[in-house]
Amino acid sequence: MFRPENAQSLAGLAFVLLVCWGLSESRRRFPWRLALGALGVQVGLILLLFGLPAAQGVIEGVNRGVDGLAAATAQGTQFVFGYMGGGEQPYQVTNQGALFVFAFQVLPLILVISALSALLWHWKILKWITRGFGILFQRTMGLGGASALAVAANIFLGMIESPIVIRAYLDKLTRSELFLMMVVGLATVAGSTMVAYATILRPVLPNAAAHVLVASIISAPAGILLARIMVPEKPGQGGYYADYGSLLKYDSSIDAISKGTMDGLSVVLNISAILIVFVAFVAIGNGLLSMLPPVYGEPITIERVLGMVFAPLAWALGVHWEEASRAGYLLGVKLMLTEFIAFIQLGAVPAAEMSERTRMILTYALCGFANVGSVGITVTGMGVLMPDRRAEIIGMVWKALVAGFLATCMTAALVGALPRELFER
Fold first, then answer.
1. Minimal CA–CA distance to 212: which of 225, 228, 229, 196?
2. From CA 187, how far away is CA 407, in angstroms rounded?
């Protein structure tokens, strides 16, 4: 059933496209065919997982898979950290909530998923899945083989690993294709963090694992569209087809597990350090702002400022105005800090204090690497792979951040525009 809230989200979808068109390097060429293709792919993938009666088994399978991975990871965590990792407690526990320690219950999942992803890549399972999505993006949105493969790899591997997959073709990418790869990298998340986000949201959002998985997948077409709007491909350039060979290789299964674990460890250490530093910086900022006179009887905080700035955007995505300030704050946290902090805070909001619709829309809006910290990661990682084009990367990275952030907002608005009954199975 179509409701006024769905029309509200459609207005937000149009707003995102209008902003990107306003920032375009060539406003005379709007890619209408690509826009229809991208929206068609997004809606088709959503209907495939949530709309078909048989898809309920897939959703349950995804949720069971996440639960199984979490349980298996807990066994390893408890073996190393004992009762601190959730094992048998040596004393009486009066506050069960205090047993949840983020460092022991969430971060180890990243290690396991990173190693598992590398193993599945070595066994060619993940490689064939990536190839399937690459062909889909080629046929529906006209991408060249190398770009399509990089976009598909972004969904599962991450924004730095995916260029390695097409390293042999990086020097052949046009400016538009390079920008597109940057935007999609910022609009999606790696498979290693998907499970962590799903674990955080599982207590407060039904089918959290399915929503997080779909969010990262369908934000890729959104990133493609917005990238093409902002930096269009010149006629006669791009569109070539490359083979689906890959330079991302492992010598054996043990090598894949070992290297995947080390890559995961790097991610865990970075996330831990960023969380400590940024949470501390927010506390410092709030301490400084507390010296200012109160506004409307309440002290000025970073949360209130971000909430006011991003509340209109949250409303445009389909959030009711009563919840727009809190939702806007989380959008601001995602952009200025990291999506990990935003997901943690979203998961901490009690179920009774936020509607399921708002929580679902925010899940899609937050599920991407587009934040200020990722700008440095993008420049550093891609600059190493393409040292001759580092100046070009730096010149486009902030525009790519805007496009990547708006791509997840576009995805959230599209989900908000669809009937809520579709997601209530």
1. 196
2. 6
CA angle 99, 303, 190 (to 5 degrees): 60
In a domain, 87, yes or no: no
The number of domains in the chain is: 1
Question: pLDDT tens, 137-194?
Answer: 777 776 766 777 777 777 776 676 677 667 667 777 888 888 988 898 899 887 767 7
Task: Spell out a b/e string for 1-37, using b for 16 or more CB atoms within 10 Å of the CB, else e.
Answer: eeeeeeebbbebbebbbebbeebbeeeeebbeebbeb
> Judging by beta carbons within 10 Å of its beta carbon (0-12, 13-18, 19+), is residue 350 exposed, middle or buried?
exposed
Beta bridge partners of 295: 298
Condensed to tens digits (0 to 9), the pLDDT of residues 96-153 reads 555 556 677 677 877 887 788 788 878 888 777 777 777 777 777 767 667 777 777 7
Q: Give me the residues paired with residue 298 across strands.
A: 295
Phi/psi for 295 (5° steps) reads -120, 125
Are 152 and 191 within 8 A, CB to CB? no
* DSSP output for 291-315: TSPPBTTB---HHHHHHHHHHHHHH
Note if the pTM is more than 0.70.
yes
Distance CA 167, CA 148 (A): 13
SS3 state of residue 298: strand
Q: Which domain holds residue 136?
A: 4-70+100-423
Would 81 be classed as within a structural domain?
A: no
Q: Using CA atoms, how far apart are residues 385 and 246, in angstroms rounded to an integer?
A: 15
Q: How far is CA 347 from the centre of its chain?
A: 16
